[in-house]
Amino acid sequence: MDRRQLLLTCASLALSCRATPASRRPSANARDRRFAITIDDPSTEETPRYSADERNRLILAQLAAHGAQAMLFVCGKRIDSPQGAELLSAFNRAGHLLANHSYSHLNFSAPANDAEVFAGEVARSEALIAR
User: pLDDT tens digit string along 7-21?
Assistant: First the structure.
C-alpha cells in the first residue's frame, strides 16, 4: 500500500467512524454502529498464556464474530519471518487493513533519524507488507 492509498484509507475510515448526532442515527441497534479498532505492532512471540498463532487466531475470531474490521499497524521487524508473513496474510485474508509502522520503530524525532532514514525504514517494512 503506498502512502497516498494509506492516507485515503485512513481518511475514509475516520469519516465512516465519525460521531453522528442521535437525531440523525437510523437505528439504536448496536449492529448499525461503527467504530475503529487499531492494533499496534502485532507480535509473533510466544506468551505464557497463548502461542502467537493461538493469540492471533483468537483476535481474528473475535473480530469476525462481531463483524469488526481492524487496521493492523505493522512494525516490520516484528513480522520479518515466515510466521510474520502468515500473520499478515491471515489479517489480509480476513479483510483487515494493513498499515506501515516503519521497520524498527525508531524515534524519528532524533536528529540522526532524518528523512532518508525514515524513507528507508518505511520502504523496508512496506516490502514485507506487500509480499
Answer: 556 555 554 444 444
